[in-house]
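Figure-free illustration: sequence to structure, shown twice.
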Amino acid sequence: MRQAQPLLIRQASCSRRGIIDILIEDGKIAAVAEQLPEIGNIAQAGGGAIIPGLHDHHIHLLATAARNLSLDLDCVRSEHALSEVLSRTVASKKPAEWTRGVNLDVAALHSIDRVWLDRITPDHPVRLKDRTGALWILNTLALDQLSGLTLPDGFESDTSGKLTGRVWREDSFLGEHIPSLTPCLFALSAELATYGVTGVTDASVTTRQDTADLLANARRRGEFKQRLHLMSSDALDTPDDQTFSISSIKIILDDRNLPSLEAVVEKIQFARASNRSVAVHCVTEAELALAIAAWQQAGALPGDRIEHGSIIPFEYLEIIRDLETTVVTQSGFVWSRGERYLQHVEQSSQDDLYRCKSLIDYNIGVAGSSDAPYGPLDPWVAIRTAADRTTDAGNALGTKESVTPEQALNMYLSMPEVPGGPSRTIDVGSPADLCLLRKPLDAALCDLTSENVSMTIIEGEIVFEQKTGTNQ
């Protein structure tokens, strides 16, 4: 992806330089000055802030794209409501046509299983995904698609040995054997562009070479514009045309079935042999404790990442700092799930949820991300929440962990290779991955919303431009 001709951005506000012009050629910043000669296409910034494009450091692209083709169950809070939603949905479908639901709150609807689904949807295959992404629930017709196969350990059975329909962390297996949706990456890329996002790190443990090639081809076709940085659990080959770069080896830890310390150490050693860092999924304290023990035995390296850090007790901060690991967090969950946390998490532990300020105070690198489709895709929701620590109902949660708006924004401006590191800068020779705001930065930091994004530029190409409104 390269611009056809030079692009000149006129009168942009830069925090380090004041009001400047920026010339972009061949996908890079070619010149920066108070005033540059007119050349090529001209975009008027009108004094709006120019910042590096935002990078989402933890997202699941294909799952996020598929969400738009799925039944969203986020607001369903009772079995009666779920029954009504599923009944209406399958009534409009042909026999044997699949229903795929997402964001099911299994904590509230803990009795949902194969038998329950069969009573509501006996004639249509159904699969529902828990809001955490760890669990699928399938009815009998869906399970019948897998008959004759050797099922992996994630398929839960009751005491009599009969399948319950609950399937834990078997996305790869289900993806191979159950018809999948064909998600539209173009729509997802366009939405990300409206938020000023110019790059993403896909944190899916299920990414294999064929998945990476699928994403790379989407970039080659111009279907997906953002730069791609990919995790995987196994080896990946980088394409010659650099349509994606390779990130950490992903390690999933799950309280339901924690691996041995030796197994985690072995996976870290595999990553080191591949010259890659590791990114360890740590949602609970037990998962975090196991990850830390593995790093202490195998050795941690700069670039190693704690993914989520949903619960980090205070006494772990000094240990994490000494390991020099980064925490890739999702403040957006404080907004989207905060009311549930206030209800179900003990008050003494609420300050441990999705820490920010204490991590920064301990000189621990902190990077921001969405964890979409499980968290809000809009990074400005997470940026705002990192600063105000307010739930979607307006209640405060863990306000001791509030950071300044500038610190919150900076969590999305670090390089994908160094999440939580220094913010990227707007300098000659830098990639032209930029976000133009409708307001000067000081004003935008007082009004943290994606509505302030007026233009998004990736590799010198304008991929989003907000035509309405005036700069302030």
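We now fold a second protein in the same way, so the two outputs can be compared directly.
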Amino acid sequence: MKKIVTILIGFLIYTSAGITQYKTSDSLKTILTKTNDPLERFNILNRLSEDIFTNGDGNIESSLCTEMLTIARELDNDSLLAIGYNMAGNYFFSSKGDNTTGLEYLFKALPLAEKINDKHRVSSLYFDIAFTYSRLEIIEEAIKYNRKGAANLPAAPSPMYNFM
């Protein structure tokens, strides 16, 4: 009986977490259909991509990345471009299994994130690069970039410190 209750509780927690994730994604998609402001659209697309990548099954849609990059280029904004390239890199290595193209986008984002001194983005990029190298079984590079990610963590008081 105790085993059945434990399984049931685990199932309820698992399904409620999944429902919450879909509610967040669905609500962001609804908001997205109601705005034409480029910066607002970019921010919603970014939140949606991050939600899918971190809370969902990891399958970011290519259309989200394409629109993010288009907006970033139109606004000529290095910060947005770094985020867009980061998401495109994540799309290619996580959703398409194309590690080489994923690395190309991640390395395009890195100098932009460094230029604007975005510690969260820089450390995220290094960790994503390290993860991609580990998938390619290039362990020396994976270790090198993982160490760079750790060396570039945002300050400890930052809410992103523990996440990274």
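Summary for the second example: The CA atoms of residues 133 and 140 lie 9 Å apart.
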